[in-house]
Amino acid sequence: MSDNFGDDIPRGDSFSETSTVGLGSRLGGSLIAALIGLVLIPAAIVLLYWNEGRAVDAIRALDRGAQSIVEVSAAGVDPKGDGRLVHLTGTMQPGTPARDPVFGVTGNGLLRLSRTVEMYQWEEESKTESQQNVGGSKTTTTTYSYRKAWLDHPVDSSHFHGQGDHRNPQMAVRSQVIDAGDVRLGGYKVDAPVLSRLATFAPLPALSASPSGYQVSGDGFYRGRDPAQPAIGDLRVTFGSIAAQTVSVAAASVGGMLTAYRDSNGYTIALAEPGAVSAEALFKDEKKAESTLTWILRGVGFLGVLIGLVCMTMPLTMLFAVLPFLESIVGAGAFLAALTLSVPITLVTIALAWIVHRPLIGILLLAAAVAGLFLLGRIGPRRRVAGFSPGRT
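User: That's the sequence. What structure does it adopt?
Assistant: Structure tokens below.
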């Protein structure tokens, strides 16, 4: 059956496209999906393996750093800390306050300045409904709708399915973070990797005169005729700042500069938090952040394996697509099988990575994965026996 497309149905700021794809095209698409799965699964396994090695390196480096860190005073450069990882607390302040190069916004003692630019623009949303047909074809109806929204990133309207009047102009100016010059913590200079760890910005009113083409609106600037009735292409600009304050740092002291410390395994340490924070607390917070990142990447790797396995089962599902209810049943079974396999694959990969880096924990994880596979194998037969036990009516 050949593919065919229905007429577009304009409905104000939305329209629908209907297409029917034949069994042959769907089978070809499933083969392509299977090839994608063959690439996606190894990529996900590599990500999982690499992530565990990265996590172990991070924890080991942080442990070594916490044990070897040297306490120094911020009053002046301490020679005993030169070339080593140091911890100190003091007032961080700029030599030259951060200043926005476009709008001229600045303030006394600004360590960092953030400019947030939003443009009023069109945004496309889509909703898809599909129906499987007897014979293996599939009819899909996609409804595209358009709404106006303030967004801090440009939306390329040239990719909209129904452009019409839904066209976004270029974004004349973008969001940006500007750092102060010659930032110091007591007697030490502060390098960019350390300064960038301060990332909690407080709202900053724009007290400078509005530039040409802009007007003052609230605490920021507005480019457009009426802030109360925005039009497509209007811009609103707001600012945030991090002012001079007491900061605690754990970083390398190199020639009077606080910069990123590189551990023997390549992991870098550059920690900074507002207030008087002990070295122990700084490292504890960084370990929490590393643990969160590790679990996020584990989730990404697991989803990669799962999606890859689902993709590989799609040709099998297509063999039953002649009857829609069979396709649905086989598709559901294939997903459950992929889910069942993706868990032990993920656990085995993590276990193998830990065997390389931490053998004892890795062996325990591998045993857990094998036990999980064994239990799954035992549960399946029991369910089948329970469902077809003799004498049951």
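Confidence is low (pLDDT under 50) at residues 1-12, 383-393.
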